[in-house]
Write a structure and sequence with these properties.
1092 residues; seven-stranded parallel β-sheet; elongated; eight-stranded mixed β-sheet; alpha/beta; 43 helices
């Protein structure tokens, strides 16, 4: 049975039907069409099949709702005509932008324009009716009852999808009729509509075409400037100014940081504010926060996360700028209060901007506080505000965001970025970028004892800096500012000076023969396993030596024991290097706790309960039975914590007894040692160097040590032996109480200036958030384990308001043998060199071997010939300020604008700039393939002078091939990769894959629609890389069930409860919001340029 109906299935499309009529109907001479919308890209394919007919008329419907809304009926006819053409022009431009990028498509669009100009094609726009009908008439010159004629009516428009050309085809349903009455009725309807419609003239289409890339040929210079405008965005035209409070210095480099930082906040939802210590990060953050509040509206809420000691500074600064009432403050160890709704804190969803001071404290994604902060940062905003954003903005403040490893940076970035939908240009997936670099770094760290690896580490961080850091970081060193003429003049006019940090001065102490012999013998006992009398640190290895049946409940027992022993070995060597006094104290402690454990064996009651801190309880005099009773009160069972002596390998008690014997001898030897050559060296330098003028013209000195015992010892000798009454010792226990005394005696910005204290000796409790810049001399009595602490220490005396010309940095380095054991010097050098490579720095901090690098990871409008981005921003701002007309013309260049260039170089290469709703990318296409390049690399190719003219547009095949290859790569890396429902993801780590597998298994075993939705949402979060610890929790849950489907089914209620709990805990947005967020628009070509 034949039917008049047909759909768009292959071989049965509207295109096939029209093609068949055109070829079979010998009298076919007129094609009349009424369509809801019209695509010029569809027309040219159809036109080829229509043949040499005399008349083509197409009537296009438009949405007239806007016309009725904006105009009254008296003006309707006039309004309809103008509005109709305006709307069609918009559709015409969109059609050309969205059409396939090919020579064939462009040829067809231009053919349509030619057909209109020649009169072969006539088009009109229906502006009177809400026209949704689609029908096509194929007629002879004179249609009658005795001639052929067809009408096709249905759902298809003239477009690739409507015609059925696009694969896979869109479903359409149409009917083809040739009865005279049917055809005549539709023909009459056509002419009625046609006579009411607005004609589109050849001039109209020509003017529309000129506003597309097909109608205007830009110069290479215009394309180059267009890229600069699109890249720098609002920075070019940003004339932001802020009314500074009384007493706040008006510093241009700080205002520039506010402009750059705010734009990063808007583009990437976060940034690092990483100016070197002392340049006023708190002030810059407050200005950015004020600007954000003004832009986002009155309901904006800010959360400031800070170390406890910095509370006063933050509150005073925010009060100064009038934003205190919009802000809540919380210490970095108390974030659980927000998650639990305690202490009148707002819900996490109510905050719009999160500011994290000393953000390097959140560099480890294993910590509980990192997990808490990530939950707060990734929760959706309850108030979308005037900026219409449901994503929080995050500012991370730290002069030292890199402390140890590349992981530090990745983890902090993931506080405002998602791994999968990373907004940083050139980085489709954040973890995929960092993963090979982390592996390479770890490999180098394993090889550092055998060869020099500093240069290769340098290379890793150079890549991280160029690809990631400089796109989300505002950082200036003092050298950057002093090298800039405008900034220099700015700070000089306000009487501000930046002292020069001189290279480190090594302090060397010499031991006499007896002390030297004891020192090196002790080092051997502490760390050399070949030494007959060496320590095994057995006290920390109990779980390692449990017999197998008892050890089973401790995962990785052997690794735990050896790790703890290694940590304590390093601790003991560092104590020896810090001061003999501190080492003696540690020796006595280790002997005591070792003896206490031996006593447990003798009483056949060995307690292993880390959370109880058994050794501390024993030190307080509690008997074993009392400790056991206390444990039971706290909920421990006796079986979990109490072991008999025979539960351990017999070798363990022998190790304990060996350690006791070695420690007793070491204690006896060191109790006889009264010399301290390190202090003697310090004492000799105190007057003849540290306080000597002109080196120290303020008479103030700052000394740091990691050991509180060393500080206690130094304080005692300085005050009693040397009889100095002006020494202030500051530790964690008294810092808060001494705040005002520290300020008045050591802070150059304090209103009150006292001289009661001239020497301050302190631990790293004062390495952050305090000004000590009345001093310009700093002594590091020992080397901190975390080398970037040295930067923080020096930052205390190198701040705005310093009056000295130079900063003197004195260092006691570890002994060669001690350093060989703990690798402190090499680790410090590698870490600091890594920092120099990633961020740049003012000066050598620890060693004269450091290669100091300067980078300008910031943008401004000042004249500067050093930083490339600064120069580029200056160039486009110069055009904006001097030739506003040309600037706006270039800014409005149509999408897909392109140029061919003949420069004598780069032949056969193309640069393609592609964008979507998520991010932009630059691609370099060559004969070997397509690669992502960053903005600065693209500019090297695109840069052109105003007088350069474009080459003739030929070699099209290569150009189209390059551009489409870039589009294909973009689609694969950003559009297709955003499908987080894909089961087989190659970019996820093993933990995430295992977590996903478990969630999919749960969905299969437990047939519950609500649970399935929860699992799907969690899989989406994992695939997108939103939370660090979520996949670990699910992996741990998976390990409990070991893929046992029966057990999963039996525990259905418990699993539902736990998965619901995780979803509540890690909720980031509703399922609909999550889905919408991942709907990435089709990639669009912004510009392209091919060299011939």
């Amino acid at each position: 049975m034949s039917t008049k109906f047909f759909n768009n299935k292959l071989g049965n499309t509207l295109f096939d039907k029209l093609k068949g009529i055109a070829s079979e109907m010998t009298t076919f001479d007129r094609f009349l069409a009424v369509v809801g919308f019209f695509r010029s890209s569809g027309y040219f394919k159809l036109r080829k099949e229509l043949g040499d007919i005399s008349e083509i008329k197409i009537l296009v419907g438009i949405n007239i709702d806007d016309i009725f809304r904006k105009h009254n009926k008296a003006l309707l006819m006039f309004a309809n005509e103008e509005k109709a053409k305006e709307l069609y022009q918009k559709d015409f431009k969109e059609d050309i932008v969205n059409a396939q990028y090919s020579h064939e498509v462009e040829e067809g669009i231009l053919q349509m324009c030619d057909d209109l100009a020649s009169g072969r094609l006539q088009m009109r726009i229906d502006a009177q009716n809400s026209l949704h009908a689609k029908f096509y008439l194929c007629l002879p010159q004179n249609h009658s009852e005795h001639s052929d004629g067809w009408v096709i009516m249905g759902s298809s428009n003239i477009s690739d999808s409507g015609l059925g050309i696009k694969q896979p085809p869109q479903y359409e349903l149409n009917v083809a009729m040739k009865d005279y009455d049917d055809v005549k009725y539709c023909s009459d309807e056509f002419w009625t509509l046609w006579n009411e419609a607005v004609p589109l003239t050849a001039d109209d289409i020509d003017s529309y075409k000129k506003k597309t890339y097909l109608g205007y040929q830009p110069t290479p210079y215009e394309l180059y400037i267009k890229v600069l405008i699109d890249t720098f965005g609002d920075q070019v035209e940003d004339d932001f100014s802020i009314q500074l409070p009384d007493g706040v210095k008006d510093l241009k480099y700080q205002k520039d940081a506010v402009i750059q930082g705010y734009q990063m906040l808007m583009k990437h939802n976060g940034l690092f504010l990483a100016d070197v210590v002392g340049l006023g990060k708190t002030m810059i953050a407050a200005m950015i926060a004020k600007r954000f509040i003004e832009a986002n509206g009155k309901n904006t809420n800010v959360l400031v996360v800070y170390p406890p000691a910095l509370e006063e500074n933050w509150k005073n600064t925010f009060k100064l700028f009038g934003i205190l009432k919009k802000t809540q403050f919380i210490t970095n160890g108390s974030l659980s209060m927000i998650l639990e709704g305690r202490n009148q804190y707002k819900d996490k969803e109510e905050f719009d901007l999160i500011i994290v001071d000393e953000a390097h404290g959140f560099r480890s994604d294993n910590s509980g506080k990192y997990d808490e902060l990530q939950k707060i940062c990734k929760s959706p905003c309850a108030n979308v505000g005037l900026l219409r954003s449901s994503q929080k903005k995050v500012m991370l403040l730290s002069a030292t965001p890199l402390n140890n490893r590349p992981d530090d940076l990745q983890n902090q970035l993931l506080l405002f970025q998602n791994s999968q939908s990373c907004t940083i240009d050139g980085i489709p997936n954040l973890k995929a970028f960092f993963s090979p670099l982390i592996l390479a770094y770890n490999k180098l760290m394993r090889e550092r004892d055998k060869r020099s690896v500093t240069e290769e580490v340098d290379g890793i961080y150079e890549k991280i800096r160029s690809k990631v850091i400089d796109k989300v970081t505002v950082r200036r060193t003092r050298s950057n500012i002093l090298n800039d003429a405008d900034y220099c003049a700015d700070i000089a006019s306000q009487g501000i000076t930046f002292p020069k940090i001189l290279p480190p001065n090594e302090l060397v102490y010499l031991m006499d023969a007896d002390t030297s012999k004891l020192f090196y013998k002790t080092l051997a006992s502490l760390s050399d396993e070949e030494e007959p009398d060496h320590l095994t640190y057995a006290r920390y290895r109990a779980v390692e030596y449990l017999k197998p049946k008892y050890r089973a409940k401790y995962k990785n027992a052997e690794h735990i024991g050896q790790t703890l022993a290694g940590i304590y070995r390093v601790h003991m060597v560092k104590r020896l290097e810090s001061s003999f006094y501190a080492f003696k104290k540690s020796l006595h402690t280790l002997l005591r706790i070792t003896t206490d454990m031996i006593r447990m064996f003798e009483e056949d009651k060995v307690i292993i309960a880390p959370d109880l801190k058994v050794k501390d309880l024993q030190a307080k005099g509690l008997e074993l039975d009392q400790i056991i009773e206390l444990a039971l009160e706290k909920g421990y069972s006796e079986d979990d914590i109490l072991y008999q002596a025979d539960a351990f390998d017999p070798a363990f008690i022998e190790m304990l007894q060996n350690d006791k014997r070695v420690l007793e001898q070491l204690n006896a030897d060191w109790d006889k040692e009264n010399d301290d050559p390190k202090f003697d060296e310090f004492k000799s330098k105190l007057n003849d160097t540290f306080f000597k003028k002109p080196l120290n013209h303020t008479g103030k000195l700052v000394l740091f040590s990691e050991s509180v015992e060393t500080l206690t010892y130094l304080y005692d000798r300085l005050t009693h032996e040397i009889e100095r009454s002006d020494v202030l010792m500051v530790t964690a226990s008294n810092r808060k109480r001494l705040t005002e005394i520290i300020k008045s005696n050591f802070d150059a910005n304090s209103e009150r200036q006292d001289n009661r204290y001239n020497i301050i000796i302190t631990s790293d409790v004062l390495a952050e958030g305090v000004n000590l810049h009345r001093s310009n001399v700093i002594v590091n009595y020992d080397s901190p384990w975390n080398a970037t602490r040295l930067m923080q220490r020096i930052g205390r005396v190198n701040r705005i308001g310093s009056v000295a010309d130079c900063i003197y940095n004195f260092m006691f380095y570890p002994s060669q043998q001690g350093d060989r054991e703990i690798r402190l010097y090499k680790n410090a050098l590698i870490k600091l060199q890594s920092f120099h490579s990633a961020f740049g720095e003012d000066a050598q901090i620890y060693s004269k071997e450091e290669i100091v690098k300067e980078f300008k990871i910031f943008d401004s409008n000042v004249k500067d010939n050093i930083d490339k981005k600064i120069a580029l921003l200056r160039e486009v701002r110069e055009l904006y300020n001097t030739n506003r007309k040309l600037y706006h013309k270039i800014k409005s260049l149509p999408m897909k604008s392109r140029v061919m260039r003949d420069t004598g170089k780069h032949s056969g290469k193309s640069v393609v700039f592609v964008s979507s709703s998520v991010k932009t990318e630059f691609y370099l296409a060559t004969k070997s393939g397509v690669d992502i390049i960053d903005f600065l690399d693209a500019v090297k190719y695109l840069k052109a002078k105003p007088e350069e003219q474009p080459a003739v547009f030929d070699s099209e095949a290569l150009h189209y091939k390059h551009v489409n290859a870039a589009l294909t790569k973009y689609t694969a890396e950003h559009v297709e990769a955003a499908d987080t429902a894909t089961a087989n993801r190659t970019d996820l780590d093993k933990t995430s894959l295992e977590a996903n597998k478990f969630l999919r298994t749960v969905k299969q075993v437990i047939n519950d629609s609500r649970l399935n939705t929860c699992c799907d949402t969690l899989i989406g979060y994992i695939n997108e890389g939103i939370y660090a610890q979520l996949p670990r929790f699910i992996k741990a849950l998976s390990r409990e069930y070991k893929n046992d489907r029966m057990k999963i089914k039996q525990d259905e209620y418990d699993i539902q409860t736990r998965i619901n709990g995780l979803l509540t805990e890690y909720q980031t947005m509703s399922k609909e919001e999550h889905h919408n967020k991942l709907d990435i628009s089709d990639p669009q070509i912004i510009i392209s340029e091919t060299f011939i």
